[in-house]
Amino acid sequence: MGNAEIISRVEQLPRLPKAISELLDTVNDDNAAMELLAEKVSHDALISAKVLRMANSARFGRSREIGSIDEAVIRLGQQPLRILVTASAITSAIQVAPGISPVEFWGRAFEVAFFSQELAKRAKLRGDTGFTCGLLHNVGELLLALLEPAKWQQVQAAVAKGADLQQLCMHLIGTEPAEVAATLAAEWRFSDELVEGLRYQNDPVLAEKRSQYAQIIFLAKLIIDGWPQGPQEERTSWLAQVADKYGVRLQLDGLAVKLESLVGSGVEMAKQLG
């Protein structure tokens, strides 16, 4: 099956439920009042429950448990609440394919999301866009598992033996997970910069125009998979070398300590989804 046919099938997948679509529109509107966002979240019991579970996790938790969405608005603030609502909406809209562990899949997605958020802020980009990029970065793999289950099993078996995921997907299925993720994000009306970030996440230099969010996702995955052991000074030096190699300017002060604190936070958040 070729790229065009796969992409066509992705485009024909069910649209986001209207309530979730409207909720994400509100989240992405910088001028939207937090009271309006809280009201929309409160209308969806499933998303409300997810937001509160994640708000009370160790990652976002406060000394006293948050008991309502209105309280979350007051105690968390605008940026963390937007991130929690985005995470709750996306994870509610996407069903994990049979044979894939939800905690493992979303654990990786959240881990890349948290790293991408921090790196985006350190690169003077939008942290919330970085987070959403990270959360959606591997959704193409999930969709290919749903659309082409037999071929995806072949891909997974070969990758487990050391084969390259992207090359194998092109050979067996006719497209790459990153392209599928970008197509879904475009169908869901996310910003062009987010869509391009997903599309070029595995090779940012291929983008016609520089895609800063592609660089951020690429760097986040590289850091997570290659995070060295050792003193803080060595880690900071390693981060500086990696960022310089791939053309990303980062504020490095305290970055190694911050990223170290994020290790394992993805699985922790995934366990809160219920």
From TrEMBL:
Gene3D superfamilies: Hypothetical protein af1432
Molecular function GO terms recorded: kinase activity
Domain of life, source organism: Bacteria
Pfam families, per database record: HDOD
Matches recorded under SUPFAM superfamilies: HD-domain/PDEase-like
Residue stretches making up the HDOD domain: 13-204
Keyword entries, A-Z: Kinase, Transferase
Keyword Heme carried by entry: no
Stored PROSITE patterns: HDOD
Coiled coil: none
Protein name as it appears in the record: Histidine kinase
Organism of origin: Shewanella mangrovi
